[in-house]
Request: fold
Amino acid sequence: MTRANEAWESLMRAYAVLMKQFNAEDVWGDLTMREYDVLYTLSKCDGPLRMSELNRHVLLSQPALSRMVDRLVDRGLVERCPDPGDRRGVRLSLTPEGRKVQQEIGRPHARSVTRALNVLTPEELEQLAVITAKLAGNEEK
Amino acid sequence: MTRANEAWESLMRAYAVLMKQFNAEDVWGDLTMREYDVLYTLSKCDGPLRMSELNRHVLLSQPALSRMVDRLVDRGLVERCPDPGDRRGVRLSLTPEGRKVQQEIGRPHARSVTRALNVLTPEELEQLAVITAKLAGNEEK
DNA sequence: TTAAGGTAGATGCAAACGCATAGAACTTGA
DNA sequence: TCAAGTTCTATGCGTTTGCATCTACCTTAA
Reply:
């Protein structure tokens, strides 16, 4: 078992533990964490986002994401517009209501995250951010 | 946005990117990654494991795990035994076939993991392991 | 111009999921 | 000792997921 494998296992375990912890908190209203993740991603990259781009950030298959967006559109949280430059494509953005919902959930959730990660020193937080950014940047060959 | 939130977001992103990468590799036979995760967890903690204990390590609801174990038992990969000390409980272990399948998938997957994490220096790998272990240990409250 | 190949997103369908809850077995305190 | 509360796993049920595939559109090259 290499160091790399130990590190990855430890990362997966931390992810599972923290996700369960966050999921158990009573801050999600009538959204799932996955739905919130979509709203959050849209809120960050504040230009309209392509479906395929969004799909890169979210751990969901393309069809599952397509249907989740359907539902979010039906609920008035997300808007689907045709992409002027590519008529196959779609541009997604939050509606004002969607932005509001994202923020209302985001605030208490962000506090939970801060609390959970406070077991780390500032140096460790910094290291974690640097290391995971490096990992995420490693698009496959 | 605090450092903690940035670090968590970065971790989530790295997790999503790497999971997609691993999932796309052709090493899983007729198992899903989640099923493999269960086999792997059982292979590590090699005493029989309680359902509830297994559930702590796996990112699945308790009913979903219960049914996944059903399927793995049906396929002859996992064994369910009554717990002598607690007649509500169940003790889970790999069958020889289950262990074999886990190893055959585990070998190439471990290589993928090593390859993916090779972008990190040995120091970074060490730091990542330490930091995520600390996070996973932070049981709520 | 157009045929061949690739990419974006949607849809049919069976399998798997989560929530709520059931049932059985432990634990605790009166 | 026994009622009330908790914990462990399983099951009913509606929703969501992934795989395979489809259609529409873009790109390339002859």
